[in-house]
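Changelog note: in this version the structure field was regenerated for every chain. One regenerated record is shown below for reference.
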Amino acid sequence: MRAEQNELLTRIGPGTPCGAVLRQYWHPVALLEEFDPALHPEMAERPLKTVRVLGEDLVLFKDASGAWGLLGRACPHRGADLSFGRLDPADEGGGLRCPFHGWKFGPNGQCLDTPAEPVGSRLCERVRQVSYPVQAHGGVLMAWLGPQDASPPPVPALDCFRAPASHRFAFKGLWNANWLQAFEVGIDPAHTSYLHRFLFDEDLGAIGSNAAGKQFRSASAGEVEGERWPMTRIMREFGKPDIRMTPTPYGLQLQTLRQISAERTHVRVTHGLFPATFVIPLSETVTITQYHMPVDDHHTYWYSLFTSFDQPLDVASMRAQRMKFTQMPDYRPTSGRHDRWRYNPQEQRTQTYLGMGEEDINVHDQWAVESMGPIQDRSREHLGTTDKAIMANRRVLLQAIDDVQNGKPAPGLAQTEVAQAASGPDTFDGIGPQNGWESWWQDSARDKRARAAWLLGGATTDMHETTETHASPASEVTATTGGAT
């Protein structure tokens, strides 16, 4: 990749070509739990926090009516910091009031009061603060940062947003790196056999339902000669995956095959939702949807949304597992460059391929992403065939930038008709027949959906129902609508 292309794809602040593309999509800007006084006591007094999204400083708040507001941080009067604003109580009409001169703004940014102005002044009618729509879905606050005079597409009805609170869990973390390298680590099916390799397997009986949600410790669906295998064993013993891609209206579906024997193959089906989200299986019945929200050019928040199609999730255990490695209030990982990501060379020889622990595999990806530097220099890369999804996604991103700059719509979920039709998408991880694996995994996915009580016992038309295409050499891959995972 040429250096100027790398610059084009990674700079996302206001006024940048790539930023203009990313602003056409919904992004997570906070967890709902960040406004829960039981977890963040300061929210009982004042439900407001600062956020930085796509290089723009904003204030996110819940006003007295219960409405969410996401406004520019600098007051449009004379630029004072609205993060110090006063949230008016319900009996004063709600809204956010700047303490400099008392100017008040509604959640939609409209100026409602300029109390120092003369009686009869209509100044406030002409003032509207920068504001963006916010919606709560799946335990996450989603925002659309598109043009002020434009309407957003609907938030797609993905499984992670449809599941009831009992069957979902959301968490996030901050990485000191650019958004694109953060996302690309998740559309690379080969890395799991190395970066996340455990040199031993835990007893599947002890793992049980995997209440804490440890990745790759659960069993794959299916059996090998009557024996169930943990994902860790498959990833460790079969490190040359056959990666195939299918373009979809929202991005790409990846089918990753690891042949176990002449009769059996491991099938892992994942998805990329353009521009910065992947969907992967945690277990037979739990899916992870992971968004990557660009804070600015050098920082990214990942948001992981866990969705169960079987039993309710043990949210307390899942949160406790992650809190051991997370600092509040900004969900910053306890490890990083400052402590060499907890690297232990003895562990690297005897327990894990990387040597950075096995309880929290997020630190594995964090190391891979952050050790590249704040913005990876892609002009020095030497890509292989296993990087085919990354190359395809970059081509789509370059085309999307060109389209938006020329007045054309951004692809995939930025388009209303695509977002309205979106559902699922189904993921899968299992050991099945070498012949007929396509229909086998799709039948298994439909059965999983049919058993999900919160889907009312019915499988829905899902985003995996696409025509199978096989792409081998990376140079032959042509994707037209989005990313991959």
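Spot check on this record: Residues 457-485 have pLDDT under 50 and may be disordered. The longest helix spans residues 388-405.
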